[in-house]
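2024-03-11 09:14:02 DEBUG pipeline.ingest accepted 1 chain
2024-03-11 09:14:02 DEBUG pipeline.ingest length=1590
2024-03-11 09:14:03 DEBUG pipeline.predict start
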Amino acid sequence: MELVISIVAKIAEYTVAPVGQWLCYSCHYNSNMENLRNQKKNLRDFKKRVLHSIDAASRKGEEIEDDVKTWLTKVDGILHQLATKILGGGEAEAGTRSSNAACLNLKHRHQLSREAKKIVENIAELLKNGNFSKVGFCPAAQEMVNPINRDYMSLDSRISIMERIMEALGDANINRIGVWGSAGVGKSTLMKEIFQKAKEESLFHEVALANVTDTLDVIRIQGEIAEMLDLELDPDKIVTVRAGRLRARLEKDNEKKILVILDDVWKQLDLEEIGITPSERCKVLLTSRDRQVLADEMRTEENSFKLDIVGEQEAWKLFEKMAGDSIKDDHDLQNQAIKVAKACEGLPIALVTVSRALKNKNLSTWKDVLVQLTRPTPKHDTKIWSRVYSCIELSYIHLDGREVKSLFLLCARQGYYVSYRDLLRYGFGLRLFYGIDTLEEARNRLETLVNNLRDSCLLLQSPHSSKEFYMHDVVRRVATIIASNDHNMFVMRGDGGQKAWPDVDALKICEALSIYGGDHIHKYPNKIECPNLRYFHVQCKNRYLATPSSTSFQGMDKLEDIFFQGMDKLEVLSLTNIQLSSLLSLRNLQTLCLDECKLEDIHGIGELKNLVILSLARSDISNLPTEIGLLTRLRLLDLSSCYKLKVIPPNVLSSLVNLEELYMRKITVQWEVEGPSNEGKNASLAELKKLSHLITLEIDIPDANNLPKDLFTEKLKRYKICIGGTWHLFFKEELAFSRMLKLKLNMSFQLDFGIKMLLKRTEYLHLDESNITKSVLYQLDREDFQQLKHLCIENNGNIKHIPELRTSAFKNLKVLKVENCETLRFIFSSSIARGLSLLEELNITRCNNMGAIFVKEEEDEIEDQGDMMLFGRLQTLVLKDLPKLVGFLSTRETNSEGNLHDFQLPLLHHQGKLPLIYFKNLKVLKVENCQKLRFVSSSSIARGLSLLKKLKIKRCNNMGAIVVTEEKDGIEDGDVILFHQLQTLVLEDLPELVSFLSTKSSFMTDCGQIIAEGNHNLHMPLLPHQVSFPSLQTLHMEGLPKIKHVWNYGQEPKTVFTGLEQLQVVEIMDCGVEEIVAVERGGGEAVAIRILVFPQVITLNLINLKRLKWFYKGVHVTKWPMLKWMKIEGCEKVEIFASGVVSFEKTVQVQRQSEMSIKQPLFSVDELSFPSLETLGIANMDSLEIIFGKLEGQNGKEPQVLISPGSRTEESGAITNFAPTVVFPSLQTLHMEDLPKIKHVWSEYSKTVFNFQNLQKIQAVRCESLKSLFPISVVSCLEQLKILEISNCGVEEIVAVEGGGGEAVAIRTLVFPQVTKLKFRNLKRLKWFYKGVHVSKWPMLKEMEIGICEKVKIFASGFVSFQETVKDQRQSEMSNIKQPIFSVDELSFPSLKKLYIRNMDKLEIVWQDQVAATSIPNIQELEIDFCHKLLHVFQSNLHATTTTLMQSLTSLRISRCSSLESIFGNMEGQNGKESQVLKAPSSGTEDGIAGHIEFPILTQLSLFELPKLKWIFEGVHTNLESWPSLKRLCLWECSEQVNKMMWASKFASSSSSQENQLPTCIQQPMFVVEEVNNPILSTTLLSLSLSPKY
């Protein structure tokens, strides 16, 4: 019963309750609908209120918040639903249904009621969420409310144009790119970003950037480029010499790509003068304000990019970031900032300078700025310049204080780079720093002011030095205008800016005048009146560096006394490269700088009583005037690099009692030894003790014995002191340090307190200890070197290790260099080494007894992980010429000889239970000539070298592997050691190296030698799959005799080797490599055709690989989509260079069936294997017989070939492989050298036409078996060929007839449309260019050289004449036919300018007929040498066509032709019995009687060793009127007749009318000379020899 009750209850639960709920919705239908109508009204009203707020925000220019838009969308959706479904048609439908459908109507009412209640709830939620505090926001500003870390280059417009420029830089056809835009638009910033990106992405091997500026200074530009290329240019050489060195550096490596960025070009720039020749390898990127400069003058019109101003949104992003957080919190200030940003008109420099100037300013200031920006001053004539000027002037106005403003204007009067040193000297002399009495105080103030200018973006940091700055050119120009208009300060620049002197009235009120030398500055007046002048600076171009055509500005290279008269207020006088006769009494002068000046009499300098700064640096002064001792107010004296200075009189320096800074480096004064009665001609260094205010000292003291005791005190704050010896070398890193000490002491020298004090405080310490037995470091009594950052020790033959100091003695050391310390066994103990936490560079060189870098002491127990000796910041490790080095860390008991255990340990390994060394930041590792090292690193250490970028191991004769696996670190299958950042791997001269990694598949013998497990045959590749180099770009292998292959290929088919995706350069030289890629054991047959892809390789060099047989054994395809340069040389066992993969695959099958041996190519390719290859060089390949052709040879007897195109066809049973597309679409240069067995370049059996659409240069050298260069079918494919050179080859013809096809065509036309240079030399078997009747045409050929072609008898003949000759000889059944090397028509050589025919022993005829002679209408230079069978150069019947020749010929040189009788012979023997000749001049008469003959532009006529020469023109006399332009006539050892009869008739000199008769012995002279009417020849030395050789 209970069961029944429970069942009924459940039924009621699932039936009655839902029915009741359903009836409830129907019963409350009316109330639900009424509530819905009320809520609808509320929602409409609320929507109107929100819309009113939206309208108000829109009128303010605000944009609507996204949540407001979403709310409105939901409201509109509900209202639409109510109008169409609920309160519209749905409600009406529910009320009009008939009673017959009561049940149906009840159901509909239920649905509407239920939907109404749900919508009412939704409306209530919307009303609740619609109470917006604000509906709009200011456009753009709100987008950047959150602080971000983006700079200018993060703007989308800049990213876009940068990507386009980078794409153009990657285009092989573009070598010049221009970027132009208005001033301040950000061109320089963009160039710096491209500079970094080009380096980071390794698009170029090297990148250099130089600022050209409006003041063109070729010397400076060369220096900036050279500095970035690590090239030292001699500063004493002229521009052209420096350009040659720079050009050689840029073109040194044919496989390196270099980008040179020249920023801010103002006018046409001669790149050649700088030393830059744009090419595919050396690309040039230029920027300029003027598009015409780039497009027209710099030839970048097609590859120019305009850098425009930024858009409104981007402008706000940049502006807001620079203005800071203050504008983000204040709504009113933010709105005002948006308006100011718009007023900057999107100009980046304006956005940056204005935003930083207004940082943290109040609202009133912002409003005032907006007024100033929108109302530019009318004095500027261009709209954009007005805005730029206003923006930068505004930044100047808002500089805080007069000091910083004055410094800003002072910077504008400097050169391009602003020196911190000059600012200090000039600013102190101008009393720019208020409340400052000493130079030390001025330094501190200057540091603050410079930082203010840098923060305002008005002064930028130089990339070359921390002590140099520069101004953007726009900022500098604005500053110059401000200085001129408001402060009467003028700047004159020779190559830009103001060139003319200010007028007289302007000079009278002028306060500052700066002049920078140039060729166009007007000559200065003899005297100028500048009564208010306070600052005068003149800088001439260096007279030693300038080119001969460059001069200092006119007249200003020497200044006379009178020039300075009237400058009574002058406070700063700075002259550079000026010759100064004497100094007037400028009693108010504070700063005098005469750098690099030629000084005559400056004894009057003692009158300058107020002088506080005096610089004579690099001047030619030899004796320091004693009058300088009268300058008791002097605070700075600079005598640096006064190489001629020999005498500093006694008591002069000691008189300068207020001196704070003294600079005397690189002078050769012989200091007197300190003594009680020093009466020598020179001062003693002891005088410096009397300078109680001295805090900066730079001095060289060659003789340490002259050093007085306790010379140096603790007052010295900055010093660069070199004691002992001569320090000629200067290192760039020295500039970064303010305290430097170089010591080269003798054995008896003892350190006093002063030197010890300097040692403790120095930042840069260089010790040359070749003359002492005990290191300086041993004399410091365990003192610390807390401030030492750079330590260099060299030439110590006694020190065994750097002495034991405190653990933290070198805690700030960043660079440690040790060189040539013979007895040094280690550097530091482990306790000292543990304190080298900041060490960044370690360089140890030529320490023959060093066994370890650091030694672990017995008592030095490591307690925990935090106590480990770490090298966490070490970035560069260089170990070179350390023959006894066995490890980086060793134990105290291990001597330098090491023990057997040490020899088997790697250089870098773990010691004990915990790692003692850790190189997480190591980027450069170089190990060279360390003979005892067998391994570089353990696998555990290698795993931590994630940042390593460059690894170079050279000349380590016992190196067996680079990385060795530790027993506890067994590398399992699939376990890989990643060198994430490694870009360069160089392994060179490592005779024992068998692999990069020694794994558990190998073991070491007792002597540490690696051998393969199981046998002694090495199967390990150089780079096994257990190591990966995902960033590797350069792989250089050289001198690795035990390396048999580079990579392994497993059974799994892989397209691209893991870790080689970025590889760009592969160089394998002098190695024992048998194959590049090897099949792993058991993996060779798994895949039918493997595809090996090297996606980024640009350069591939395989040189002197005597054992190399193939790239990969087996059927495969290699693909090199980016390969541009390939050089294969000295690979003696390579029988086939490459063939199509299908051909090879079928050959394999055929030869397997016939059980014959197979010849495998080096490369197996398809039509897409080398799509980008531009240069192919093949040399010393003894087995090659054909280069381009098909793979013949089912029987194996046919020659194998280089490249077979592939379309998988068979023809006549021969396996062929024809390409459906171009096989070498980009090949430009083909160079073949020393290929003794090659018979054909293109196979003569090939029926297909190969397409080499871009081939421009073909060179063949010493190919003795070469029969022909290419078949007739290939000629039409060489449309771009420009240079054809064949020398020392066995060719019989250049173009070969294919398969007897020569007779099928009556007349062939062979056209080489782009060839400009043709050279055939030492082709002793050459008979003709092409056998058979044909015409060859060379429309662009400009230069031709034919030499030592012994079988050539006729140079050229008209093809019609040759065709008739062929017919005649066939009729007479004559077998011997003389075919010319060239068969031509009138248009064969229309552009030929230079023709050289040399050593043609059998040549009888040059041009056989009139057609042939007419084929060279524009010949300018003709040279014929050693053609002993030649009787005449030209033969003609003086037809009018020869006039063309006479009009164009400028140089004619005939020499050593023993049978030559005339240059232009008479055309006799029409029966063909006489030798026909090229051409003779025309008389212009129909009857052939010689009239006047003239060569109007011939400048040189040379006739050498022509013993039978009788005529220039046979039967025609010439006089000097025939040679009106002749400049040089050379006759040397011609026939005796010619020597006697060279001149005949009358000769009248230009200075006398007296007639001089020359004796005559024959009736007709070679020359008839009547008068000297050739002024050119009459003043030119004639080279004559009247002594016949025969």
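2024-03-11 09:14:41 DEBUG pipeline.report The chain has 33 helices and 82 strands.
2024-03-11 09:14:41 DEBUG pipeline.predict end
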